[in-house]
Design a protein that fits this description.
By secondary structure, the protein is mainly α. The protein has 2 domains: 79 residues, no CATH class; 51 residues, Structural Genomics Hypothetical 15.5 Kd Protein In mrcA-pckA Intergenic Region, Chain A (Roll). The protein has 8 helices and 3 strands; from the N terminus they run H-H-H-H-H-H-E-E-H-E-H. Strands 2-1-3 form a 3-stranded antiparallel beta sheet, with no helix packed on it. It is globular and about 60 Å long.
């Protein structure tokens, strides 16, 4: 007997064979070092959920204004916490987001952008092999969303061979 939720966390495209969409997806998969298009579809589904919630809250503001504003502020605060929105953005900005905004908040991408890895694929490998810690805790999930507060606490594990500044894998990505 298994436990947990067995539902899919993403929706596949309605039209499976559209050359333009397939080429665009392949570019994003390569750019962000994703393992499969399934990870991209998860990000798109998460973005779709954010936009759906924003539309619902904007529509609810027509009725009970105070309650809708409170729920809207909670929603915007949650998106600010994970870095999807900036401090001065409001709920209408959610409707103009695209999947790159969601993909930029993945731990794999943040590790690459901070210069801990020379490619997104190498960042994924460092994470899966347990070389990276967030707030002192080893994280092996490349798709983890990084909050703004956790962003500065990403570093190599002190017990990892990569914690040595002269390690060949680290020296590759550094500018001389």
């Amino acid at each position: 007997m298994t436990t947990g939720n067995a539902t899919k966390r993403y929706e596949t495209p309605n039209h499976p064979f559209q050359g333009e969409r397939i080429a665009e997806e392949a570019g994003l998969v390569d750019r962000y070092g994703l393992e499969s298009k399934e990870e991209l579809w998860r990000a798109q589904s998460r973005l779709r959920d954010f936009r759906r919630e924003a539309r619902r809250l904007l529509g609810a503001a027509q009725g009970d204004v105070e309650a809708a504003n409170a729920r809207g502020e909670e929603f915007v605060a949650r998106l600010r916490k994970i870095g999807i929105l900036n401090e001065n953005d409001d709920i209408t900005e959610v409707l103009s987001l695209d999947e790159t905004d969601v993909l930029e908040r993945r731990l794999q991408t943040v590790v690459y952008r901070q210069g801990l890895a020379s490619t997104p694929q190498q960042a994924r490998q460092f994470l899966v092999h347990g070389h990276v810690t967030v707030d002192g805790a080893r994280v092996t999930e490349p798709s983890k969303f990084v909050t703004v507060s956790e962003e500065d606490a990403i570093e190599f594990d002190e017990n990892s061979v990569l914690s040595d500044e002269l390690h060949p894998a680290r020296a590759e990505g550094q500018d001389e």
